[in-house]
Write a structure and sequence with these properties.
The chain is an alpha+beta fold and 217 residues long. It has helices at residues 2-18, 194-216, and strands spanning 23-25, 35-38, 46-48, 54-56, 59-63, 67-71, 74-75, 81-82, 88-91, 96-102, 110-117, 127-133, 139-146, 159-164, 172-178, 180-188. It has one domain (26-190): Jelly Rolls (Sandwich). It is 18% helix and 38% strand.
Length: 217
């Protein structure tokens, strides 16, 4: 019965994932069901240097420049002040920043997050670029978002941004922009690769065979 329930669950999960329409999303609620959210509330000003990696749950963050995890407040110029008692991630220098977000050899179908960008002008030149890659490091999608500044007097204003693929094939995401801050990284529960599922089912079959043999004895 355990084996049958597990197999049925895997089939149901695959059906659920495949039902979500693909495309760019601007609301984290549009990430497919069974999503996981990383809110960085358990960190308090942890500095991660360029090239270092930080594992949070099933995700590994590797910045190209120094960043702070669990930041409490940030002045974003014409995009106002970020920080309303919540913790978030911020790059510590103004300029072109990069961040690699890896799902550690697994694939996910949808990724989204809340973010803002440091902005000096009112011309809407601040931007964020996200690139999505599969396990073979092939580029799946590139999305670039530019928005008008919220205003220097605003507080904790943000955009939500992300992408849902037509299959569970997103293994890595890279972000780049000027003085990016982001929070609430939301992603679909990673899906085991086919060979991992095959190994799992083979192991369950072996356990079932041993159990039946013991019962006969």
């Amino acid at each position: 019965m355990f084996n049958r329930n597990l197999i049925a669950g895997l089939i149901l999960a695959a059906t659920t994932v495949g039902a979500q329409a693909a495309g760019v999303i601007v609301d984290r609620a549009n990430v497919p069901a069974n999503a996981i959210v990383i809110d960085f509330e358990n960190y308090d000003g942890l500095v991660v240097n360029a090239g270092e990696s930080l594992a949070v749950g099933g995700v590994t963050f590797t910045p190209g420049e120094q960043l702070t995890v669990g930041q409490g407040i940030a002045d974003l110029g014409e995009n106002g002040i970020w920080g309303a008692g919540n913790k978030f991630v911020s790059f510590d220098n103004i300029g072109n920043m990069t961040l690699d977000i890896s799902f550690n050899g697994h694939s996910t179908m949808g990724v989204a997050f809340d973010y803002s960008v440091w902005e000096t002008d009112l011309d809407g030149s601040a931007f964020l670029t996200a690139r999505y890659f599969d396990l073979g490091n092939n580029l799946i999608k590139t999305t670039k978002f530019i928005f008008s500044p919220f205003g220097a007097e605003t507080y904790n204003q943000f955009q939500s941004f992300g992408y849902v693929s037509d299959s569970a094939n997103i293994a890595r995401v890279t972000l780049s922009g000027d003085g990016v801050v982001f929070d609430n990284l939301t992603y679909t529960q990673p899906v085991p690769e086919p060979h991992s599922i095959a190994m799992l089912l083979a192991g369950l079959g072996l356990v079932g065979a041993v159990t039946r043999r013991r019962q006969r004895v």
